[in-house]
UniProtKB/TrEMBL annotation:
CDD domains: SusD (cd08977). This is Starch-binding associating with outer membrane. It comes from the Bacteria. It comes from Parapedobacter indicus. Keywords: Cell outer membrane, Membrane, Signal. Gene3D superfamilies: 1.25.40.390. Transmembrane segments: none annotated.
Amino acid sequence: MQTLANHKTNSIGRVLIPCLLVFFSACNVLDKEPLDVIPETIVWNDEKLVDAYLTGAYLNTTVLHNEADDVHNSGKPFFSIFYVNNVSDESKSTSNFSGNAYQFKVNGLKINGGLLEYWERPYKVIRTLNEIIENLPSSTVSETFKTQKIAEARFLRAFNYFYMVKRYGGLPLILKVQQDTDPQEALYPKRNTEQEVYDFIIAEGKAILDDLPEIDDTNWGRPSRYAALALISRAALYAGSIAAYGEVDLGGTIGIERGQATRYYEASLEASSQIIDGGQFQLYNDNPDKTANFRELFLTKRNTEVIFAVQHDGSDKDYAGAGWAYDYFQCPFPNGWANGIHDAPYLEFAEAFEYIDGRPGTIDFDDLQGQLITTGELWAGKDPRFLATVYTQDTKWQGRNLDFYNGIRQEDGTVLTTGSYKGVLANGDQKVTQTGFGVLKYLDEKKDNGNSSTAGIFGSTQDFIVFRYAEILLNYAEAAYALGRDDDALDALNQVRKRAGISQLTSLTLARIQNERRVELAFEGHRYWDLRRWRIAEDYLSRNQSGIRYILDYTTRKFLVEKRLNLDGAVNPPIFEEQHYYFPITLARTANNPNLVENPGY
């Protein structure tokens, strides 16, 4: 992909004329000619330059990478790809570099913001896209090229606005290139209502459907009409749930009226139906081993479930000082910087996975007290997605079993927590003081994460999936359920469960749908936003989460299993308050633009 540099901007989204464009490919440098020395007519009449300019907008849409505010800038934390996991109830960050996100989990959001910010960067991208949309119609490039690139630009513009509106609520919709000579109300715009922004996103998605390719294998990584449908499916579902569960404030700047919920659910359902009925995608189901199958889904490029993904081939390591480092920070020990297991999933997350027969996945620790058990017995009958999503004690990794145990029970029954006993270490080789779990989803065992060179750190080849078919089925199920179409909802959700290898449901509740999303879409950037749009984050994100402790019995090599309490800290437990359903606009932005109204509670 390419990158865009040297735009001038202020904090309200006003972006002036670009001064310099630098194009980078995922594999090759395409062009380093400063754009300001090339006549503008040549830029818009040259398909390669236009495409490079558009590709720069893709690269700067960093939220394509799990909500990251940055992924390639060595001056910023390239591990921001994990922040959205760590502020949810999925995991605790254990990294030495984790403070930036975790402080918001225990201290809440303040008026100066700082969490998952996405304001200045997308408005820069939106200016680029507006330029393309305005200039291409009069250019001399082919009509086919012109039509598709304008549609791509409109898709990416709507995509950026969606990732902004779910953070801030209503915000200025800037749909033309701003000039210094524009009137003040255009240069310092007011916030549109939240409903207007969602309506724009959905309308744009519908408008470009016929201008995007069905599936373009020759241009993989660019949006097809199904990516646009997937955006509508997701955005309309969010709008429907905000209308159903949220409250309107600031005259509609935030919140959507209850009466609008049905039409949004219908829009989501219709978009999902078009993807389902199109027959171009299906749940990945190539391996009869259900655990291996779910793992392979995230490691197999261009498989039948992937609707839209950001591609990686390992060449990100060529960026100066940073790049795509997913494997390096999520992997078990050993790690080149002794900094693996960035995300440590909570026990409550692990317990969200049911058993194959449909029983709840909670563990009765009272029943296990004093009992020696193997990990095979502990997790027997668990949803196969569980051990495809997390690694824990005895997970096989690169030819060995991982050891998370903390303490060894000696032959006299006492537990030793330091040193060793008869040649056996008292603690395993993983981060034993944390939750007892790490994230296995997306991890490739073939990658050498012990290599602390640039290639070892930033050489991940894992594509990051933005839209996949299972999400569409779950979107369909939730929208259908909200519309009273229980049988349709049940059928869609059971398709996901059947692929997973767990029992089919005979009836549905909203809680069932919510939990299915929790386990199926874990660590894909959904959980935090789902809790917010359902307006249940005040409960789930204000809980002090737990972990699991394994104590190795020297004699039997089995384990005592205990529950670790208050892993987020007894003094400062997590907090999520009502105002946190919307991020603050921040003092800096409202100072720069007096027409921006701050969100309530800040």
